cinnamoyl-CoA reductase (Oryza meyeriana var. granulata), 362 residues
Amino acid sequence: MTVVVVVVDDAVAQQQQLPPGHGQTVCVTGAAGYIASWLVKLLLERGYTVKGTVRNPDDPKNAHLKALDGAAERLVLCKADLLDYDSISAAVDGCHGVFHTASPVTDDPEQMVEPAVRGTEYVIKAAADAGTVRRVVFTSSIGAVTMDPNRGPDVVVDESCWSDLEHCKKTKWATIFLSTDQNWYCYGKAVAEQAACKVAKERGVDLVVVNPVLVVGPLLQPTVNASAVHILKYLDGSAKKYTNAVQAYVDVRDVAAAHVLVFESPGASGRYLCAERVLHREDVVHILGKLFPEYPVPTRCSDEVNPRKQPYKMSNKKLQDLGLQFIPVSDSLYATVKSLQVKGHLPVLSKDIPAELNGVTA
Ligand SMILES: NC(=O)c1ccc[n+]([C@@H]2O[C@H](COP(=O)([O-])OP(=O)(O)OC[C@H]3O[C@@H](n4cnc5c(N)ncnc54)[C@H](OP(=O)(O)O)[C@@H]3O)[C@@H](O)[C@H]2O)c1
């Protein structure tokens, strides 16, 4: 399929009440992923033509993308791998914007670091080479922000914070991945973000970064991604206890909205922390247990020795200032579980939530 790029002057588009993305083509890497699927949906709703990269366009796991409103007319799936420059370049060719969300999500250093870093460098270079891209939005992570053992307990985590790379290599992050003693995911994301900034500066590319915290909320894709496992394990009996740990959460629909906001806001620059709030794991299981008492949600902490970890303070002011109103985390957790049920990842044990529990808040 050939993408025809029609550029409409902003003022003309406004006068004709055309959607903001009308006549603009954007590339979304890793389009079938959890976050990217919502991003593609939102971009299509806003009138953009989307070139979404996937590793195999014929894979049935992309069917949810093809079913999105507007996809038949304005979504093109391009075969691309992060380690193949030519495939990335072909996907970015002719685009006005690029959203680079594709990344391995693993703690295996060999699978994580090189595709994250080299793939990101390729995307920025391809955007520079294309000559038509006005902004690249890179999906980084909270993992590039908070892994700093020297940050004081009263420091408000904001966009100025960076993870300590040596600390990432030495510690595990008790959130998604519990299988190794090193935190190569956070390391890989931090190094990829640094590489993105370096190449963007060298090549004169306008780069804006979104740093989501742990993302929850409904799934569009048929498979269970890593952050959904974080919730699923508290419902399907695989986690018998919760850890003594804190974590910031945000809804996937807000993450998609944040990406579009920073792309469409001419004055947006630098990093944007995308977080609703920080919760202790005890708070998460409390919300889940109240909303879904039919599941074996753990009630005991695995650490009965140390004091309860205190949530750190985190600022989401930059995105709020752009107009983003965050979905409350309790609503996101509810939507996550309902979605896991609908997609067949969790058996439906009871249809109704007791009326008195509907108002559960974090
Ligand atoms: N979910 C979270 O809690 C969270 C929080 C902060 C930041 N993030 C970041 O958000 C982005 C999306 O994450 P997600 O949660 O949506 O994960 P996801 O569902 O696993 O999506 C990752 C996507 O990247 C693609 N990908 C991985 N390696 C690739 C490669 N070598 N070449 C081409 N494509 C490749 C995957 O394609 P395949 O399906 O073919 O493997 C998949 O479509 C990532 O950059 C992640 O680091 C996620």
The CA atoms of residues 165 and 187 lie 6 Å apart.
